[in-house]
Amino acid sequence: MTPDMNPPPPADQAPSGPATAEPAAPSLETQLAELQARQGEMTDAYLRAKAETENVRRRAEDEVSKARKFAIEAFAESLLPVMDSLQAALAIQNATTEQMREGVDATLRQLTAALERNKVVQIAPPAGTRFDPHQHQAISVVPAQQEANTVVGVLQKGYLIADRVLRPALVTVAAPQ
């Protein structure tokens, strides 16, 4: 060996000399602990959100189920007076024809009112009304002294429920001339 050459310092000794001023970086264990804590928080937040979503879905399904089950309740409730009237009419043993007629008229008014309260509306187009295939069903075409494709007469009333055809009106229609 030549005197100019210095042997390298052993690996377990730090080189002597001026110290460099480096900021102390967090150790890997500290970083790992922080990341594990954040991951735990995120997992907890995810599980809570998932549980809340599941609860909302279950409550919505229950509400839909109850709505379907009890949707008819108001309608049925409005028909009960009609049922009572019919039962009362049958209970009368010696009713005259006039009494029966009055009872039937009153019961029909009750039924009509119950249907209207529940948004069931009659389709009974007057003569001369333009034929509407969405609300009317033509049973026959007859020669008439009115414009073609207009209603001549109603054979059976139709009904709408909330602007949806429940049953179309059966009508006769004027033939083209």
Descriptors for this entry?
single chain, 177 residues, alpha+beta, three-stranded antiparallel β-sheet, three-stranded mixed β-sheet, 3 helices, 47% helix
Description:
It is a single chain. The chain has 177 residues and is α+β, with helices and mostly antiparallel strands. Helix content is 47%, strand content 18%. The protein is built from three helices and six strands. The chain has helices at 28-70, 73-91, 97-117; strands at residues 120-123, 136-142, 151-156, 158-161, 164-167, 169-174. The strands form two sheets. It has a three-stranded antiparallel beta sheet. A hairpin with a 2-residue loop joins β4 and β5 (164-167). α2 packs antiparallel against α3.
Topology:
Elements: H1 28-70, H2 73-91, H3 97-117, E1 120-123, E2 136-142, E3 151-156, E4 158-161, E5 164-167, E6 169-174
Parallel strand pairs: 2-6
Antiparallel strand pairs: 1-4, 3-6, 4-5
Helix pairs in contact: 2-3
